[in-house]
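Run: sequence + zinc ion -> complex structure.
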Amino acid sequence: MAQVTIHVLPRPYQARIENGLLARAGAILAEILPQASQVFAVTVPPVRRRWAAKLVRSLRSAGFKPQVVAMPDGEPAKKLATVEKLAGKLARLGADRKAVLIALGGGVVGDVTGLLASLYMRGVELVQIPTTVLAQVDASIGGKTAVNLAAGKNLLGTFYHPRVVLIDPAVLKTLPEREFRAGLYEALKCGIIGDVDLFLRFEQNRARILRRDPVELEYLIAQSVKLKAEVVSADEREEGLRRVLNLGHTIGHALEAETGYGSLLHGEAVAWGMVAATNIALRVGRTDSLTAGRIADAVLSLGRLPEVKVSARKVLARLQSDKKTQNGVVHFVLPREIGKVEIANDVPERVVVDAVEELRRLSRRD
Ligand SMILES: NC(=O)c1ccc[n+]([C@@H]2O[C@H](COP(=O)([O-])OP(=O)(O)OC[C@H]3O[C@@H](n4cnc5c(N)ncnc54)[C@H](O)[C@@H]3O)[C@@H](O)[C@H]2O)c1
Ligand SMILES: [Zn+2]
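>> structure
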């Protein structure tokens, strides 16, 4: 089993990554949270159907009396009204200050349950059991919780770390193909940012990864979690270093927003964003053509990405009004070498527009 410590104050915690871990969740929680009086697993119907019984069995055999609390599936459920409804359910079920909330699901469940745990009775214990690639390599690590507002995504949230993150790559076998691949781009991102070996796995073992070979998945999830944990441990609140995790996200977010969050999954938008960032790095002389080619190939060989049909000018305008913009200057995370990135704030507008137009060309289906 891989164990990764996330060093945050006042209390560091661990992420454990192992195939089959879900069946041992009860025993682990009995060790970490022996005082837990009530345990509530928050989940969505598709995950409940496939994985809740296994978790409940494991909790029961460790002496807990777990209850499963369902919320609606999908990004539209990531809103304050869902948090309020869940809090009402918890109160009716008699949840007190010693309750433990388990988030069993993807990033939506993790974000909503995290926010709920930070608010219910001014804060109860939280355990993350992420069930998508995206949630396993990214959303469950780092303590960010949020819901969306009509005015924008993730505008209402807290920093609230779980007591432990239990990652079982075996649960990914029921994940829809497109969700699975979309999450892989975030893992590949970790390789490009700071883990050459992880990147090489994508180059060399791609077929096995796409077949969801459990050994490959365990490796790439563990390495991605390690990288995110290192960055978060050094920079919990995103002042500096944590920004490197935004590789592909500057343009990715703009593409998501410009397409109305309809045609691209987040990971797919990040994939296009990484291709664009690589193209920009090449054009402004921050990387060489060999490195740029390897990165673009690694991204594009994971599967066909949805077509990009947006106007490059509109993408640029969005970037300039994005919340991550400082004083009107857009910061880009640019790859230098495999495993090394840098932040640039001097990319000419023309270069950005050209890079987005290049995405349109690359993605055209003919
Ligand atoms: N907190 C953070 O730091 C952070 C970081 C990145 C993303 N996020 C958030 O995460 C969210 C996206 O998360 P996501 O991509 O996991 O989407 P998601 O939670 O909507 O899950 C995607 C779909 O997969 C289904 N599903 C989940 N696990 C499954 C399984 N094992 N088998 C079958 N189906 C399964 C879900 O029911 C859902 O329909 C966004 O809201 C994003 O803002 C948060
Ligand atoms: Zn992301």
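>> summary
The chain has two domains: 2-174, 177-363. The mean pLDDT is 95.
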